[in-house]
Amino acid sequence: MQITDEKWMRVALDQAASALSNGEFPVGCVLVNNDRLVGSGARMSSAGTEANELDHAEIIALRDWLDGGKQGAGEQITAYVTLEPCFMCLGALMINGISRIVFAYEDVMGGACGTDFSRPLTKYKSLLSKRDAADHIYTRYRQGASETEIIGGFMRTEALWLFYDFFSNESCTYLNDTLLARYTLEQGT
User: Fold this and answer.
1) Residue 80: which of 118, 112, 110, 40 has the closest Cα?
2) How many Å apart are CA 65 and CA 59, to the nearest integer?
3) Burial group, residue 146, by CB count within 10 angstroms (0-12, 13-18, 19+)
4) 43, exposed or middle or buried, with CB in 10 Å at 0-12, 13-18, 19+?
5) Closest by Cα among 177, 166, 136, 137 to 46
6) Are 26 and 19 in contact (CB under 8 A)?
């Protein structure tokens, strides 16, 4: 699996490098089924007048996959991402049946992959019956065959340098002077 993982993470890193060359936050994501690319995306709209927090690489890749007819749906699909997915992206990947997530660089500020999905993330858990609790959106994705495998830190150094370049560029203001920016700049020295 190591050779396949490296091959596809390199494609995600190329997506991220392309985003960086366009002045965007360097996140790339590819969706792979049976060693075949079924969706890809790079971070968009992280700067300029159209800036928003919806055009994340994972969401773009999922839309590409959906537009392509969800090839490989129901089978094992791996998402290769250059940055640990945030809650929005992790949830979208899981809900769409992505069974394996491999990310390169940890998002110390907004990464969601360390979340404990073994229990509902709500204070209203006591109001749920045992049957309802078992069907909770978070616990549902940690049971049996539908469990999502998450591997972090794969090809971390290669991704680190993309983020280091981004945060070192004075013209890039996205997430400037945040925990992630400071952490990344410290890592690169």
Assistant:
1) 40
2) 10
3) exposed
4) buried
5) 166
6) yes
Give the pLDDT mean for 83-103: 94
Q: In angstroms, rounded to a whole number, what is the distance separating the alpha carbons of residues 175 and 173?
A: 6
Backbone angles phi, psi at 148, to 5 degrees: -90, 120
What percent of the chain shows pLDDT beyond 70?
A: 83
pLDDT of 170 over the 50 cut: yes
pTM: 0.87
- CA dist 68 and 136 (Å) reads 29
Q: Residue 163: its pLDDT value, please? A: 97
CA distance 62 to 64: 5
Q: Which of 50, 53, 58, 149 is catalytic?
A: 58
Residue 58 appears among annotated catalytic residues: yes
